[in-house]
Design brief:
Length: 71
């Protein structure tokens, strides 16, 4: 149920993934990262479960993505 889902703002997404803002949006444009969802007129967030799932499927542990994800 999405109404009970926790949403993460960009600073938390950056912290959890180790990716800078520009890379997050680049990956979104390439279909390599979960899309953000509008939370209000001027704010977006990512579902916590989407970020956790992305981390699990893309690489195990570490703070840096594998080289094939780099722009």
């Amino acid at each position: 149920d999405e109404s009970k889902e926790r949403f993460l703002r960009l600073p938390e997404v950056k912290h959890r993934t180790g990716l800078p803002r520009s890379t997050i949006y680049l990956y979104i444009s390439r279909g390599l990262f979960p899309k953000s969802r509008r939370l209000g007129n001027r704010s977006v967030g990512w579902r916590e479960s989407d970020i956790d799932a992305w981390k699990e499927t893309k690489w195990s542990g570490g703070n840096n993505p594998p080289a094939f994800f780099l722009p």
